[in-house]
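Throughout this review, each integer encodes one residue's backbone shape. One record appears below.

===
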Amino acid sequence: MTPPHYLLDAAGEVESDSDVLEVRTEAEFFRHALSETLLLIHGAKLIQWAEVFAAGREISYKRVLSPKLELQQLFPQLSAEDASILLHRWPDLAQNDHLRTQVSKVAAHMLEGNVLNTAEHAALWLLLRINADESLQRVLQSLGQIISKEVSDDWQAVYAAEQESLESLLLSWLGLKGIPVQWPVPFAANLQGKAQQRIEQIIQSQVAEHGMSVFERWQANGVAVEVLKRGAVVTAAWLTQQKEQLSQASVQRLRDYLPTQNYQSLMGQLPVNLPAALPEDPGQWSAWMQREYLPYRTSQHA
């Protein structure tokens, strides 16, 4: 295929490379029309002249669009202002033509290459929307309406949701709505930004109100592991203030989710109970160590 000699930019927004000569007037066009230099011709009226001229002399040409207009073709609901915001936030979208060829490629690039129609992309998109400033929120909502048509039913709500529904979606996926998690897979991203702060507030509030019982309910409902880890730390702090609730059973329930230092500190505050006698059966010694001796040995009062 013959490479184009004219690049025709009707909107006049395409930026030229160093080896391309920009043409904006009829005089410039006729001066360079038969040169060997690649011409980038701007303006709707001028490219009509160029097309007629090229057709009569069998000169190859190609219509081109700016990155902003290409994005608006992919996402028809995107305004010119919002397309500019998108390109400013993700400048590689302007520099790499390949990224602008498909909705899925734009969506993946925006989230560090995570593939669209996966739990990882959906979770990161939800966090991106919650954490975004007001102008970016508007852009993401416009993009989401198109992206939602490219994904399975499992993830459509994440992309199509209105802004006011996002927190509810996050709480539902994390398991903090008070009912068992109904999502197909656990939440697939690490909390960050405003979303993380909000979840931490909710954890603090629920532990303050319900104490150890809320952690038990979280486990029963299949709450996300990250929530259990954050909740375990908060619940451990609550137990240190509610010594009557502190027991071997409560510490063991938190154990798998606590940092080692927190776990050891909590164990050290358990009431001292002398270990029961060592079982006669050697096969039971390991269980005895876990159940009887280690709690006593790690106690600050032992």
Summary: The chain has a mean pLDDT of 90. The CA atoms of residues 35 and 287 lie 89 Å apart. Strands lie at 6-9, 20-23, 38-42, 61-63.
